[in-house]
């Protein structure tokens, strides 16, 4: 898991911070009540959860997966981690007295709202926000109803409230190709500026062949094709005009995976700028969407024809 995904998971965890055990203390603080009363606010059973509202965005369960805003498949691992930690976030203590009135007003808006539906019925609604490194939330009910609380995720040091600020693109499934070794019909990799490095992999006598390579490195070929079981991007780039700008230039490379199942056919045009080697963009031919790529991750895909020879 990349550091960015870990951060996003932690950020998401905050949104459910008010559903854990309330354990409060200090001068003037109300009693937390019995453990059973506190635990009643925890989302102990996530099996029936089928919708999560995250400020302006909505995650909706569809079959075994999730959709973000009803349009795109969501990152299944990210949602699974969210559901796994719904019961782990705790309320640390009441917000400082000097901040309570202002926080109560600030957290009341819809932009700070998290809603949870289970089996199509409203289950919980919370209000979250933050200031600096501290995250706050309004207790939805119980002895601390509508009081600003400081949130805490055991074992984590996270800026929790930023989850509601995450754009929809961050929730999307980052896997743009998921296939397997046996389903490949044809794999092409083209380098417009260096055509001598181009190659085409096709099935041949129970294995694969590459035109022009007489002594094929079978281990290299197997590992290379097998890498396409899961091809991921870093993010979807929603920047007006960027796609048109990229399409006016020749790509650094083009990967075209043709599958036995034509629905998995994928073409990715890759654009690189020598002045910014840490930044790599791709354009998905099927949708025209721009994606951000990790240059280190894509090194295993951007090989040359001669690399397959013994």
Topology:
Blueprint: H1 3-13, H2 35-39, E1 49-54, E2 57-62, E3 65-68, E4 72-73, H3 76-84, E5 90-94, H4 100-106, E6 113-118, E7 121-131, E8 134-138, E9 148-152, H5 168-171, E10 175-177, E11 184-190, E12 199-204, E13 207-210, H6 218-226, E14 231-232, E15 235-236, H7 242-247, E16 253-259, E17 266-272, E18 280-284, E19 290-293, H8 295-298
Antiparallel strand pairs: 1-2, 1-6, 2-3, 3-4, 5-9, 6-7, 7-8, 8-9, 10-14, 11-12, 11-16, 12-13, 15-19, 16-17, 17-18, 18-19
**Low-confidence residue ranges:** 3-9, 11-41
Can you give the mean pLDDT? 80
Kindly report how far apart the N and C termini lie.
34 Å
Please state the structural category.
alpha+beta
How many domain regions? 2
Q: Give the number of helices.
A: 8
Descriptive overview:
The protein is α+β, with helices and mostly antiparallel strands. It folds into two domains: 163 residues, no CATH class; 134 residues, no CATH class. It has eight helices and 19 strands. The strands form three sheets. It has a nine-stranded antiparallel sheet. The longest helix is centred in the first third of the chain and has 11 residues. The radius of gyration is 25 Å and the shape is elongated.
């Amino acid at each position: 898991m990349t550091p960015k995904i870990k951060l996003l998971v932690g950020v998401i965890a905050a949104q459910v911070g008010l559903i854990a055990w309330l354990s409060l203390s200090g001068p003037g603080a109300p009693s937390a009540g019995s453990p059973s009363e506190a635990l009643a606010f925890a989302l102990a059973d996530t099996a029936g959860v089928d919708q999560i509202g995250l400020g302006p965005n909505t995650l909706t369960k569809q079959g075994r997966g999730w959709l973000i805003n009803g349009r795109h498949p969501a990152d299944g691992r990210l949602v699974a981690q969210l559901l796994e930690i719904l019961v782990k976030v705790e309320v640390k203590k009441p917000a400082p007295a000097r901040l309570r009135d202002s926080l109560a007003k600030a957290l009341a808006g819809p932009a700070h709202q998290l809603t949870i539906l289970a089996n199509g019925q409203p289950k919980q609604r919370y209000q979250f926000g933050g200031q600096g490194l501290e995250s706050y939330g309004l207790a939805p009910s119980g002895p601390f109803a509508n009081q600003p609380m400081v949130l805490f995720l055991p074992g984590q040091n996270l800026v929790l409230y930023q989850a509601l600020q995450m754009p929809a693109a961050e929730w999307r499934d980052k896997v743009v190709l998921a296939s397997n070794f046996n389903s490949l019909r044809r794999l092409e990799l083209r380098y417009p500026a260096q055509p001598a490095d181009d190659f085409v992999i096709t099935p041949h006598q129970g294995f694969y062949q590459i035109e022009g390579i007489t002594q094929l490195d079978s281990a290299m070929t197997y590992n290379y094709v097998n890498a396409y079981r899961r091809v991921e991007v870093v993010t979807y780039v929603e920047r007006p005009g960027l796609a048109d700008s990229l399409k006016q230039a020749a790509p650094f490379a083009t990967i075209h995976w043709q599958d036995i199942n034509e629905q998995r056919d994928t073409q990715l045009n890759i654009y690189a700028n020598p002045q910014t080697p840490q930044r790599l963009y791709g354009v998905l031919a099927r949708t025209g969407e721009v994606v951000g790529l990790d240059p280190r991750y894509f090194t295993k895909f951007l090989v040359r024809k001669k690399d397959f020879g013994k």
